[in-house]
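I'll show a record.
***
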Amino acid sequence: MQQFVIERGFRRGLIIIISIFIFSFFEVYACENCSNYDNQDFKVQNVSVTHHPWIAATVWEIEVKGKAGNTKPVPAGQLNGAPVLGYVFPTNLSPEVAGFGNAEGILALALTSHPDFDDTPLWDESGDGNYDNDGGVWHPHWVVLTQDERVEGGFSVLEFNPKDESVTMPPTNPGMPMYMDSPGFQVITDGNKIRTVVPDYRIRFNTEFNFDVVTCFMMVDTGEAEEGSSHGNGEMPMLGVYRVYDVASGDLSLPYSVQAAK
């Protein structure tokens, strides 16, 4: 009996050591990847959200030191571990205005590129007639961010149990069990600027709000979600922020407000 207990304890210890090694390797691998993209294309110089009454829309714009949108992720060749680069606008808007019901977290508009997968099935961003090959083209997502200590960047996209019938999602969501939407707004890269246009009615006419800008490296983890789990298999988030390259305010205090077009 004593020998059995010792062997069982040894096996458990070995499993824990292996798990820690896998987790550490995954984190190190991710951080090695995210360092590859830390360049002037993600160093923020100026940010703005401007309301234009004559088109009833806000223009969200980021100016960087390099060339906006010029750097794109190198494909991983699969969904698990797929890299995602983003120019992200965290806001103080309620997630409800983007169609996420009573979800709790930070509503952010993320301009992203991820060539390993296409999560905008309703939109053909490249205009080539194929709706399934546009992941690498810069495109927007509404996401609800939540604090997450498992990743270096400190945030992940809020997840939910697919069996939870109380979850509210906008009809343009890509079908993943996390608070993400594919709204289809036009994204324009223009020299050192990247911008998108959001019609007023798509944020329920909330044209006065505060925001910030974060440039970052994110990554996908496809661990199967356990019943009742809000973060995949509990080891890594489904879509986490692994590295923050720059924060416009320096402290994520959301000090910027919407300005009226002149």
